[in-house]
Design a protein that fits this description.
Blueprint lengths: L11 H14 L4 H14 L3 H13 L7 H14 L3 H14 L4 H13 L3 H15 L11 H14 L5 H9 L6 H4 L13 H22 L5 E5 L2 H10 L10 H17 L5 E5 L2 H10 L9 H11 L4 E2 L26
Parallel strand pairs: 1-2
Antiparallel strand pairs: 2-3
Helix pairs in contact: 1-2, 2-3, 3-4, 4-5, 4-6, 6-7, 6-8, 7-8, 8-9
Length: 339
């Protein structure tokens, strides 16, 4: 949820205001957009304004997709500007709720770590990993920050490697090992007067930051557009020229699965699916100053939905329902060998 744009290259207050306006235009995407706006306000050091946005979201929490994530972000933000007691209470509440999404676990654990609560941070990372990881299966991509963060904190505490630390080492993709990245003695070189030592430390820090961003974010460089049957029927009734792109709903679903499998076989990582609706598509076309019948608009629409956080990961996790909405498990539907 943290924007990656360097602070010196963006007016964070202006960007937050733009995101708030966009949230008003796209209510279905308001949660993701307002979280990004709050992140910009935090980067602008306007933490009270960020808390106001978190409170605004939580006031309508019945409509939130991930209220635990919002609470975790609010807690981390509050602690940064002196509201430690309230932050601790929220963190305790998030841990007690045991969310099934790894992001809240990572955020509250890192908040504890930032304030030198290393034992509590280790416990939090471990609780999240124990809840979300299944023995004998490779951890889903989104859970890896739990293992990397846990490895880092345990290294700071001087704890011996266990099975999860070894797994983190295996999953880590940087040329610099996790043990070196998370070595507490590393910081000593920052006080050196030797330019070569400082340059080496900067390189290691950059590598660590790149690995962290890669693990914590959930990028969807390729997001494929999925039209549910009713939406596709409405689309083709309104814009019949798109029938060449969508000869039938069954063919549309088969094309999605085949395209994603081909991309995966070519090595494209982090594939996603975005679900389209006719009103949203029409609004997007209007914002682009073109007509919804323009076939070249479809991939732009998919990319925009993904950028707003509307993409879901493909393939679904083991035992999860199929992305097509059939109600069957993915392995028994489009994930089957006959697909």
């Amino acid at each position: 949820m943290r924007p990656d744009t360097p602070a010196e290259n963006v007016d964070h207050h202006a960007e937050a205001a733009r995101l708030e306006r966009t949230a008003g235009l796209y209510p279905a995407d308001a949660e993701a957009l307002l979280l990004q706006a709050a992140a910009h306000l935090e980067l602008a050091a306007d933490r009270p304004a960020a808390s106001t946005l978190y409170d605004r979201l939580l006031a309508g929490q019945g409509d939130l997709e991930n209220p635990h994530l919002v609470r975790a972000l609010k807690a981390a933000n509050l602690w940064e500007y002196g509201h430690e007691a309230e932050a601790r209470a929220i963190i305790d509440g998030v841990r007690a709720a045991a969310p099934r999404d790894p992001a809240p676990w990572v955020i509250v654990a890192e908040a504890l770590e930032t304030h030198d609560e290393l034992e509590a941070a280790q416990e939090t990372f471990t609780e999240g990993a124990r809840l979300l990881l299944t023995e004998g299966q490779e951890p889903p991509y989104a859970t890896r920050p739990l293992l990397f963060g846990r490895h880092r904190v345990r290294r700071m505490l001087g704890a011996a490697h266990d099975a999860w630390d070894s797994m983190a080492d295996t999953l880590h993709s940087s040329s610099v090992s996790l043990d070196e990245l998370h070595d507490p003695k590393r910081v000593w070189s920052l006080g050196s007067n030797n330019p070569a030592e400082l340059e080496a430390e900067i390189s290691r820090l950059r590598s660590e930051l790149g690995t962290y961003r890669e693990a914590l974010s959930r990028p969807f460089p390729v997001a494929v557009l999925h039209w549910p049957a009713a939406e596709l029927s409405e689309l083709l009734d309104a814009y019949p020229t798109l029938a060449a792109e969508y000869p039938s709903h069954e063919a549309h679903l088969a094309t999605i699965e085949a395209s994603l499998r081909e991309l995966a076989a070519s090595g494209t990582p982090n594939l996603g699916i975005v679900t389209a609706t006719v009103p949203s598509y029409e609004a997007f076309a209007a914002s682009e100053g073109t007509t919804p019948s323009d076939i070249t608009l479809l991939p732009q629409y998919a990319t925009t939905l993904a950028a707003r956080g509307r993409a879901t990961e493909w393939p679904p996790e083991h035992g999860a329902g199929c992305w097509c909405g059939s109600g069957r498990a993915y392995g028994e539907c489009h994930g089957g060998e006959a697909a």
